[in-house]
Amino acid sequence: MEGAMNVNVGILGHVGGREVRPSRSTMLDVNSTSGITLDLGFSSFLLPLHDDASSDAAQITLVDCPGHASLIKTVIGGAHIIDMALLVIDVVKGIQMQTIESMVLAELSTPHVLVVLNKVDLLPDATRPAQIAAMTKTIRDFLSTSPTLHAVPIVPVSSGDADGTRPPLGMPALLAAMRSNLHVPARSADGPLVYAVDHCFPLRGKGTVLTGTVLSGQLRVNDTIALPMLGVEKKVKSLQMFHASVDKAIQGDRVAIRVHGLDASAMERGLAITPHSLSFSSNLVLRVHQIRFFSLPCASGTKVHVTVGHTTVMAKATYFYHKAHVASTTTSTTASTSPPPTFDPSVEYSYLAVLDPLTSSDQAEISTPRVVFVLLQLDREVLCPPRSHVVCSRLDTDVNKHVCRIAFHGRVDAVIENVATSVRIGKVKERRGVVDKTLDDPAVVIIKEIFRKETNWDVFRGLRVQNVRTKCVGQLDGPFGKAGKVRAVFPKDDVAVPGDVVVLRFTKILFQDKHDRSLGQSPTIYNDQEGSATTFKEDKGSTGGNKSEGGSTSAALLASVECEKKCRTGLVERLKGETATNGSNPSVIAAGLFATAEEAAEFIGAQVATDAAEVGYVEALFGKAGKVRVVFPDGGTFAKVGQTLRLFEK
Fold it and tell me: How far is the CA of 63 from the CAs of 26, 83, 461, in angstroms?
């Protein structure tokens, strides 16, 4: 029907449970023996908007996403082009892990979802109503955890079989539910063209055909489009929508584009755009929205799979936050009415070592999360339209472990060209030394073991240090000798004695240029609200109280200097044992956790954690200077020399 508004409806669900298409998709990639979708499939039909014979109808484009766990990258790519979703669940098998991942993708894509309870014809006639009711209740309980899908319709159906021995059931009810819940989105032809290409094939004697969906802007016959992945521009020779020629396509339309002189084998998926309207990006900043089903910690410095449209690449993730956002979301008792914070390149943020998974108690407060951002440094450049929706996953997780692999998502807040000048993330670092002796002036003390003899002293000049025993703060004054000892000046009323532990805490800006290695100290760095790194769970609510708790092994944010009796900080001095093929080591030598061997001996067997939340224990002393050997029995550690270790006292 000419002029009918197109609505893209995604079909999501576990493999084998999704034979529910009201109109069979013409799929380019289907396993011929099993009938399992291996790639995105597309079909369309007209859905009347009224029960009467009026001419109003919507064109429904079904986007059939593969259901197998190993094909999730394709599913994530397909989810970004849909306006509405059918979440298909096998009534016999019930909720499976792919059901959970499909529900997550449906949530991220659209609030307009129908749950289709499929294969009801496999249930015995006598018990079918009771079994459908029981499964409907199970699904409703499962959906109750969703902020947007808890009240969506659930429609029992059966698609039957190809030879007609099992007729379809419930299809009229499904179409009626689609009609009553249909969301026809507002479409705009404004702005540059962004067209998501999902297939490309040659047409003998006529050129090459690209098929895909217009994400923004419009497209006309004779327009010139750019294919940045190939570095070419092509003129549009013709356009078709489901075998009907058209003159133009706008946002939301599924359309085929015919061009000349393009090698179809060189193009698979990607974007076609208005020439010169987008450039490639390799560094993205987005606000993190965690997935409540993801159960693994996300450590800064580790890799994640980043999906932007149909493109999935690996990226190094660095998490950070602003202290003002922590305070505002952990002390307020009502939801904030101010606009959500966005990334500001002029602001100095705080480094977050580990983003802990959401706990069950967090889920009740998911509506007002603490604000965390992530810097994604991509392994290769991608085309990223403004405010693109990015999905980050751990697709290296074994699909047989039945865990959700989708970690977090968010809209792109900023595209960064130069990380060194455009992102300011301060990481609090700590060094520990021991008072070696005092001079004639009791306010001047000599500190040892806080620096190596080859350390560049100049960057530390004038920084403040704290005597852990007396809590008094002094200032580094200058080097003393050539063995790494330093001179510090304390208030005259502070009586330091040899053996006192002295801590130097400072903020280092990550990604700084080598010629700008300045260190900073906030006025409160030794106050009760800042200090050694300890756990701060990802707060998913503002219902009162700071939820910071010391003592967890997944060290993350700054806490009180009073955690001296809870947390000790040291460094990996060297790696021990044979390095495994995956790069891990069975043990390390830790320095700085203890001042003396006698002190260290009291902590044999104590737990030690890395910044990546790897947990080991103190196995034995190493020498007489307070160094210890730390063993990581559960798969070793990927920590490197110089990285932080934390020991949490009982």
Answer: 10, 10, 62
Distances (CA, A) of 166 to 159, 176, 261, 640: 8, 22, 48, 62
User: 353-384: per-residue pLDDT in tens?
Assistant: 888 888 655 554 443 347 899 999 999 999 99
Residue 616 has pLDDT above 70, yes or no: yes
Count the alpha carbons within 13 Å of 362 in the hemisphere toward its beta carbon. 21
Same domain, 311 and 173: no
How many whole angstroms separate alpha carbon 496 and alpha carbon 436?
10
pLDDT of residue 52: 66
Q: Give 276-289 pLDDT, tens digit per residue.
A: 999 999 999 999 99
Residue 440 burial (C-beta neighbours within 10 Å; 0-12, 13-18, 19+):
exposed
- Residue 379 φ/ψ, nearest 5 degrees: -70, -30
CA dihedral of 37, 38, 41, 47, whole degrees rounded to 10: 30
**Which among 180, 206, 239 is the end of a domain?**
180
Residue 286, pLDDT score: 96
Boundary (domain end) residue, out of 273, 292, 310: 273
Q: How far apart are CA 47 and CA 38, in angstroms?
A: 27
- Tokens (6 digits) for 231: 């570095």
Whether the full predicted model's pTM is greater than 0.70, yes or no, is yes
List the domain range (segments joined by +) for residue 219: 194-273
Beta bridge partners of 291: none
- Mean per-residue pLDDT for 620-639? 87
Instruction: Kindly give, in sequence order, each residue whose CB lies less than 8 Å from that of residue 514, ignoring residues fewer than 6 positions away.
Output: none
> What pLDDT digit, counting tens, does each position of 292-343 carry?
999 888 888 899 999 998 889 999 999 999 877 664 444 443 344 445 678 9
Reported as a pLDDT band with limits 50, 70 and 90, residue 564 is very low
Cα distance between residue 131 and residue 558, in whole Å: 52
Tokens representing 246?
């058209």
Q: How confident is residue 22, by pLDDT bands cut at 50, 70 and 90?
A: low
Contact 566, 603 (CB under 8 A): no
Q: Please report, for the domain that includes residue 480, its CATH number.
A: 2.40.10.190
> Distance between CA 520 and CA 523 in Å, rounded?
10
Identify which of 309, 343, 58, 358 has the alpha carbon closest to the alpha carbon of residue 198.
Answer: 309
pLDDT tens digit string along 421-441?
899 999 988 899 999 998 888
| Selection from 347, 216, 329, 208 nearest residue 274 by Cα | 216
Kindly report the CA angle at 127 between 126 and 131, in degrees rounded to 5? 155
Q: Tally the residues of the chain.
A: 650
